Amino acid sequence: MNNSNLRYSQSKEKSAELLRMVLGHMGQHDAAFNPLTFTVWFEYAAGINQQLNQAVDERLRSQPRLGDADLLNLYHLDVDEVDPQTMHRIGNELQQVMQTLADKASLTGGQAAEFGLQLETLVSELLGVNQKLVPPAVAQVIEGTARMCSSAQALESQAKINQMEIQRIQGELSRVRDESMRDTLTQVLNRKGFEQKLACMLAQSVDAGRSNWLIMFDLDHFKKVNDTHGHVMGDRVLQALGEVLRSCVPADSNISVARYGGEEFAVMMPNQTPDPCNRLAELVRIRTKALKIRGRRTQAVVLTVTVSAGIAAMQTGDDAQTLTARADAALYHSKQNGRDRISGDAAH
Fold it and tell me: Model pTM?
């Protein structure tokens, strides 16, 4: 379980109480209303991060109003283990708060404007009857109402600006999250991405007659490629296999491709029957065998490669470890029986 889930286990009622405290803290300081600032003040208000509370209290003794740089520093020093996914969720919650604030400000402004108009109409009618019927206090009420309208409009405007900033930060968080789960060499998911996608797949229900499938691929004799042609050529082979895997997966499907480690790759196919799994594995095998890795200078074919695969379907009681172990065992069977082949639950 992610540490952030353990840290943010408050009930809905407790969260609402903390939210009011957080907004109070945010309103007293100069830092922008964004997920990062919200996270710092949430942990401070909840009292779940003693190191952070001590750092904030110490800073407040010498600096009563904290700005963006202060909150950023506090976040990196004392909160930084919160992952981008959690930050994105916090951003959604804060954005909802800003929307509610903007709606209430708009409603308040509208009501104040309507009240002000009624007052002005009443004053106009009273003046028409007798100027003495209009005490000076009424003029002050009209001015106060106008100021209320102006303040409500300013609050609504600021809330909308904050919403736009939160959306920008959420976009940046999404980009960072995607990059953190992508293997830069092959442009498929990395091991972290694999683990997250596999966990999601295992949590999904399946239709009757279907299952969640895991296919493990491994380049045959890859050590020989590195030893004979060098690691630069080895990287080119890995890149080529990444391209093959991506080309075999329809863009609009829920199938995920990941680099499991080294020259081993994985494909996760949720809610599928055996035949599509076997067809995809066979397509990868055929396209990999058809690869021709050429020298950059001469463009002559330097080498060709093959890939072996193991297929496993999720069974009752499976977790990530057991499902991966069975797919790996099927892959090992392919290696032991001559390589360039597919073994396992869906193999024909």
Answer: 0.57
